[in-house]
Design goal:
This protein is α+β, with helices and mostly antiparallel strands. It has one helix spanning about 10-35; strands at about 45-50, 60-65, 75-80, 80-85, 85, 100-105, 110-120, 120-130. It is elongated. The protein starts with 7 loop residues before the first helix and ends with a strand.
């Protein structure tokens, strides 16, 4: 009978490949979790948006509540990328039931985007295409 040591080489190679794969997975996971760890949690603010036919106030925002409503320091309303004008100056934070009115010269199906400002943090609160009557 001929004695050979061929069986040792494939076993060692397999163990080395598994160790390298586990090491690479650990490095990639550490990088991925490091990037995700820097994200701030989302804010919760409830609001409704309505449109009406009016030359002075055609977008109506009503605040309904939410855990972070008291942290809201401002909002930015844009219609199809153009800043909507506030009908009057509003104080922040709003209370439940506060109604804010905005004006835009655009009509038809337009994308309305409302961004909430929470100090130095901003978050999209509303993003929808709506029909603004002429």
């Amino acid at each position: 009978m001929k004695k050979t040591d061929d069986a040792v080489s494939p076993v060692v190679a397999t163990i080395l490949l598994v160790a390298i794969a586990v090491g690479l997975v650990a490095v990639v996971a550490a990088m991925a979790f490091g990037m995700v760890g820097n994200l701030e949690g989302g804010k919760i603010v409830s609001l409704s948006v309505d449109t009406q036919k009016s030359s002075s106030e055609n977008i109506i925002v009503t605040f309904s509540g939410g855990a972070d409503l008291s942290a809201l320091t401002g909002i930015r309303v844009t219609v199809d990328g153009n800043q909507a004008n506030a009908s009057s100056a509003y104080s922040f934070p709003p209370s439940v039931g506060t109604i804010q009115r905005y004006t835009t010269s655009l009509s038809g199906n337009q994308r309305i985007l409302i961004v909430g400002i929470f100090g130095d943090y901003e978050q999209i609160l509303y993003d929808r295409t709506m029909n603004i009557p002429k």
